[in-house]
Amino acid sequence: MSKLFLTIAAAFAEAERDRIRERIRSIEGRSEGPRPIPRWEGFGYRRGESGDLVPYEVEQEAIREIVSLRAQGKALRAIAQAIGFAALGLLGYRKTRSDNALA
User: Fold this and answer.
1) Which of 25, 33, 42, 56 is the most exposed place for a label (fewest CB within 10 A)?
2) Which tens digits make up the pLDDT trace of 15-43?
3) 71 touches 81 (CB < 8 A)
């Protein structure tokens, strides 16, 4: 009985090893071509005419205020309330923001 169990367990182990080997080969076969430029600029920046990142002053001002409040030892929740992200419409802006949403 134990010999039968070991044979079955070995067959499952071999099948799993083959699956892993296939998965690794498929990943290695992928092309590592040039990476696409991300569309998201990051908070405080926009893309300029040439595609370079340009500081967006409205959001840069908010960043300076956040850094100032954090240096004073305020908690992140208190900073969010003080800045008023919900009132500004900035909270969760990445999900629905278009280029001119905050302009």
Assistant:
1) 33
2) 999 999 998 888 776 666 666 666 677 88
3) no
